[in-house]
Amino acid sequence: QHKMNPIICEKGYRNRPLTKEQKSDNRKKSKTRCLVEHVFGFEEQTMRGLVVRTVGLIRAKANVALTSLVYNISRYTQIIRLKPELLG
């Protein structure tokens, strides 16, 4: 089992603003959320959504793996196109 902690940014209020530690924690959480949301946004916009329409867990896992592979390949081509010196 994977252990997942709920990571939600804390909210400040007029009478109780966020401390520096809370602001720092929120920034870390926001960076992670931004990275993850970009991946799902790409899948939804470019690859016709996030719905997995398969019968069976094995096919669903294969579908997710192939979708991730396509994302990684497209991201690789973007990086190489923008920074060709990374190619070696």
Give your account of this protein's structure.
The chain has 88 residues and is mostly helical. The chain has 2 domains: 36 residues; 37 residues, no CATH class. The protein is built from 2 helices and no strands. The chain is extended. 0% of the residues are buried. The mean pLDDT is 88. This is Transposase IS4-like domain-containing protein. InterPro entries: Transposase_11 (IPR002559). One of its GO terms (biological process) is DNA transposition. GO terms for molecular function: DNA binding; transposase activity.
Concise account of the structure shown:
The chain is mainly α and 88 residues long. The chain contains two helices and no strands.
Search tags:
extended, mainly alpha, 88 residues, 2 domains
Q: Structural class, please?
A: mainly alpha
> Could you estimate the helical fraction of the residues in percent?
55-70%
General shape: extended
| Radius of gyration, whole Å | 18 Å
Beta content comes to under 5%
Number of strands: 0
Provide mean pLDDT, rounded: 88
Kindly report how far apart the N and C termini lie.
Answer: 39 Å
Biggest sheet details: none
Number of spatially distinct domains: 2
Annotation field: number of helices? 2
Low-confidence stretches: none
User: What is the N-to-C succession of helices and strands?
Assistant: HH
Task: Tell me the layout of helices and strands.
Layout lengths: L19 H27 L10 H26 L6
Protein name: Transposase IS4-like domain-containing protein
GO biological process, one term: DNA transposition
Pfam family, one: DDE_Tnp_1
